[in-house]
Amino acid sequence: MEVSVTFQPKAMLAPYDYSEPSNLALKYACVGARIYGARLTILHARPLDLPPYFTEEGQERLLAELEAARRKVRTHLATQVGRILELTECGPQVEFEVADIHPVDAILEAVEKHGAELVVLGTHGRGGAKRLLLGSVTENVVRQITVPVFVVRQKQHEIIDPADPSRMPTIKRVLCPVNDTTISRRAVGYAVAIASRFGAALTLLHIVEGDGASRGAAREQFSPWLEECRRADVCATLEVRRGKAADAIIDYARTTTQDLIVAAARQRDAGSPLFSSTTDALLRRAPAPVLLIPGGRAD
Fold first, then answer.
1. Superfamily name and number for 11-152
2. What is the mean pLDDT of residues 190-208?
3. Is residue 263 left, alpha or beta, with left meaning phi > 0 and alpha meaning psi from -120 to 50?
4. Alpha-carbon gap, residue 200 to 38, rounded angstroms
């Protein structure tokens, strides 16, 4: 297994919707942009309702009004972000963008337009009926995107000081759930790159589901992965637990106070647009920030 992944994003995207989770995500994005010397684009998307009927003569006036509205929103966005981040000349290179389309489409288009290599998103972590009713921009973005997505929620273990985004994050423990898939191998590569960058300890966690499977066999299977991590000069250990994957991963992350979870974002199967239950649970219940590595169906 090849674990060497160069994770040095030079362009980052931070969608912003004025919510508390979005405020927190913005601070994480600012810290990340400083660390990696990346250009940071802050995006606000709000679909504008056009009148159902308008004459050809009124089209020019309407377009002018829309452009004026965009300028006003961009000015307000820059002012609000400035209050939150207290941007200075020594801060990251920041630009603002306003889109008048659905947030998911706006984010996907902005990734392509700006060559973003990392998207930082805040999520409410809703579950149950409320989640089904409101939908989830984060879930829809991760389902379709081709670059890693860093997901943060309120009321969770934080690796930055929200009151001082200029300080370096504290990342001492990185957790990477693994199974024998191509996308899982990619996730380990990202985890190794981050652990190496911050001098953090890395734990590879494999969950054995079902009574018939052997923990010993699993340990033997993933030991070569562990050795590859160590050859990359990362302090790495392998943990094999039994249980339901989602619950076991979240419980392990909570009880061992992991600072960051790096995980593959898998779909249920080739024909389903839904996430695996593990990915879904991490989005809603993870006790620490999560870096999701896209890769489609587990294979």
1. HUPs (3.40.50.620)
2. 95
3. beta
4. 22
Phi/psi of residue 198, nearest 5 degrees = -105, 5
Partners of 39 in beta bridges: 11, 93
Two tokens at 289? Answer: 């920030």
Encoded tokens for 189 = 């590569």
Q: In the 3-class helix/strand/coil scheme, how is 136-180 assigned residue by residue?
A: CHHHHHHHHCCCCEEEECCCCCCCCCCCCCCCCCCCCEEEEECCC
Helices (H) and strands (E) in the chain, counts: 9, 10
Taking alpha carbons only, the member of 120, 71, 122 closest to residue 97 is 71
Please report, for the chain, the start and end positions of each structural domain, with discontinuous segments joined by +.
11-152, 173-290
**Edge to edge, what strands does the sheet with 260-267 contain?**
93-99, 39-45, 11-15, 118-122, 149-152, 290-297, 260-267, 173-177, 201-208, 236-242
Place of tokens 């660390």: 35
pLDDT digits (tens, 9 = 90+) for 274-287: 456 788 889 888 99
Residues 138 and 18: their CA atoms lie apart, in Å, by: 15
pLDDT tens-digit series, residues 178-197: 998 888 999 999 999 999 99
Distance CA 44, CA 240 (A): 42
CATH of the domain spanning 173-290: 3.40.50.620
Closest listed residue to residue 240, CA positions, set 213, 267, 265, 219: 219
Taking the C-alpha atoms of residue 233 and residue 4, their distance in angstroms, rounded to an integer, is 11
